[in-house]
Amino acid sequence: MSEGVVVLLLLSGAAYYWYTGRVAYERTIEISKTVCKDINVQLLDDSVVLHRQSIVLNRQGPTIRRTYYFEFCSSGNDRRRGEITLRSSGVECIRIEHPDGHYFFNLAGTRAT
Description:
Blueprint: H1 3-38, E1 42-43, E2 49-58, E3 61-73, E4 80-87, E5 90-98, E6 101-105, E7 111-112
């Protein structure tokens, strides 16, 4: 294999990694807005922050797990944290530090306190 093909493969891999990261980021923003609206709190800064990412092996092969943090307030003078974990571009779980108690949403969409 020539050097040009290797460079092209590396650049293609980097572009794909960047693209999937961007899609995951935008999806997480949409999810955080929806979750905040559903639990009647205000999303702060309209943004999310990538906290952690790792490669996870499953039956379909390796996938990327990304965990994002977002902040919200319920009364206007408090800051609370939420966490959204995506595997590839699908939601794995959502955790919320709500004043009424912590919430956890799993893949099936069920809620536990």
